[in-house]
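Quick one before lunch.
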Amino acid sequence: MENTTTRLDSQEMINPRLAIPDAAPLVLSLRSVGYTLETALADIIDNSITAKATEINIDIKWNEALNYISVRDNGYGMNETDLHQAMKIGSKNPIDPRGNNDLGRFGMGLKTAAFSLCKRLTVGSKLIDANEMSMRVWDIDYIAQSNIWELFDESSTRNWKDALSWFGNCEQGTIVVLEKLDRLITENLSDQAIGRFWQRIADMEKHLSMVFHRFLSGPQAIAILINGKKIEPWDPFMRKSFATQEFREEFLECNGESVRVHAFILPHHSKMSVEEYDEAGGVNGWMEQQGFYVYRNKRLIVPGTWFKMLRKNEPGQLARIQLDLTGDMDFEWKIDVKKSSAAPPSILREGIRRIAKTAQEASRKVYYYRGAVINQRVKAEDNDAIWEQASVRGRTFFRINRGHALLKDAKAQLSADAEKKLNTFLSLIEGYAPMNASLAGPVSGGTGQENELIESAARFCLDLVDAGYSSSEALRKVLQISIYEGLAEAIKNKLQL
Ligand SMILES: Nc1ncnc2c1ncn2[C@@H]1O[C@H](COP(=O)(O)OP(=O)(O)OP(=O)(O)O)[C@@H](O)[C@H]1O
Ligand SMILES: [Mg+2]
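Model of the magnesium ion complex:
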C-alpha cells in the first residue's frame, strides 16, 4: 500500500503562491470523467454498503410532474459536520488507511458519480439518535454562475419532497437524490423515450445484480430494490450447477498481502436450458465475460478480463476466475475512482498468466467436449478410439470401445473373475459418464430393443451383486442410468422383485 507522499526538498519550494481551481470549470469537467449510469449508481450504492445498510432502495421517477433518481439506505448515516465534509470534492485523503469493509478510497465517488448524471445533488442523512435530518445540496447551475464552491442546506423542489416522503420517519440512514438529470434524460417525454429509458434501467439492474452479487446472497444478504422490486444476485460462476468445475483456491503473495484466486469452468452448453444459457452469458455475453473477475472487498470491479495477457476467444469462454483484492491493494492494482478497472502489479503477472492459461485450456476441453467424442467415433473403425457411439431408444449413447488394443491386452492377463469385475466397472463408467447422464432426445424404439435393454439391465444388476453390491443398492445404481429411464417396473419384474 502506497501510504506516504514524497518528502519535499525545501530548496525546491521558493515563493509558494495560491492557485485554487475555479469552481465552475472544475465542476463542469468533473462531469465527464467517464461514468455510465451503471457505474455511477454502483458508486453511490458502495457508500450505503460501507455504512452497513441492510436495505437500499433506488427510486426512479420520470413523468410530467417528477424527474429524479434517489438512493435511500438504512445505514448509520452522518451528522451535519460529516455530511458537509462528505459533500466536498476530495472529502477524504486517498492515502489514509480504510477498513476492510470500506468500499471507498478517493473521497470523490458520491459527487463525481452524481454530477456525471445530473446537475443537482441533494443528500439528507440522519444518525440513529438525532432528532432531525441534516441536508446539503450542490447545484451545478448555481456553481457555473457564481464560480464559488457554495452549497445549500435546504431544498424545496417537488422531486426532493416526493423522494423524502419515501424516506419517511426512518430511524437512521441516508438519502441521495439526483435531479436535473440532463445527462441521462436527453429526450422530451414521449412513449418511445420512456420505453428507451426503462430499458436502460433494466440494463442497470442487471449490472447491479452482477456487481453486488456477493452482498445479495448468503446469510448476511442485504436487499437492493429498484422501485420496490428486489434485485436478484447473478453468480458468474454458476456455483449451483452440478456441472460447474471448480479448481482449488490459490493464494498469490505480494508485499506481504495475499490475493485469493479461485477458478471455475462453467458447464458445456448442452448441460443448460436455453434460458439458463442466456442468463449465464451475463450482461456482456459469453465471449466478453470470460477471464478474471476482480473483486475489491467482495464488490465486483472488473467482470471478465485476461489483463491483456491472453486474448478472449470462443473456446475460452467457459473460464471465469474469482480474484479477491482488499482495499490495501488499491494502488498496486491501480484501482480507478470509478471502481471499474484494475491491473495486476508486475510481480504477480507470471502467476496470473499461469492460472489464466490453465483455465483457458480447461475451458477449451469442455467447450470441444462433444466434438471430441464424435471425432473419436470415426476412429472407432481402426479400433483405436476410447468411445464409440450407439443409438439406444432413439438416443445417442456413448460406450467404451471394448475392442481397444490396450483393454484387450490387459484383460488377457486377468483371471475370469477379475475380467468380469472389470467389465462390470466399465458398464458403470458408461452408465454414469457425464455425456450419458443427461441424454437428450426422445425415448423411443421398438419392443425388441426394449426387451433387450431390460435383459441387459437385469444382467448388469446381477453382475453388480456378484461384484459385492447388495441387491437393493445394485438395483438403485442400474435404475439411475438414463437409458433405462421408464423401465424400472419391467426390470424389477424381470428380476422377480
Ligand atoms: N450513504 C452514506 N451513508 C453514510 N456515509 C456516507 C454515505 N455516502 C457517503 N458517505 C460519506 O461520504 C464520504 C464521501 O463519499 P464519496 O463516495 O464521495 O467518497 P468515498 O466513498 O470516501 O471514496 P470513493 O471516492 O472511493 O467513493 C464517504 O467517505 C462517507 O464517509
Ligand atoms: Mg464512495
